[in-house]
Amino acid sequence: MHIDFHDKTNSVDEAFTDLIQRLLNFTAEQENLTKESEVSINFVDNDEIQTLNRIYRQKDAPTDVLSFAMQEEGEGELKIVGEEFPVVLGDIVISIDKANEQAEEYNHSLEREISFLALHGLLHLLGYDHGNTEEETKMFKRQEVLLSEFGLERR
Q1: Cβ of 43: how many Cβ atoms within 10 Å?
Q2: Tens digits of per-residue pLDDT, 61-73?
């Protein structure tokens, strides 16, 4: 999987991006994605993610992660066809401010929190959701299994 990182905060260590790259490649293998799949990950601050959250979700508050899928078909859109091109899954936006807050709140490392958020975002791009109890159970169980198998269990 090709991952294009954009750090608008200039605060994300290369070790974090390397870890995320390995985790998402592991997840891509587990989810049977093509090696040509592409995703972008954007690291932003609370102000920027709040703006995006307000525009796209009508929630005027910062959040930890947002996902913008490219493979979803909107109402009235033409079906996406063609398997000769890379599968562009979409964009993941992670608030570094929120990741820091949540790592402290949940008493685990920033490394684990950013990895969790990147994985959570990727699973949304793959169609997982948590709009109801059944979907939430399925998605959160998959997250924990993947993090555990990768070696990033909660401490």
Answers
A1: 26
A2: 999 999 999 865 5
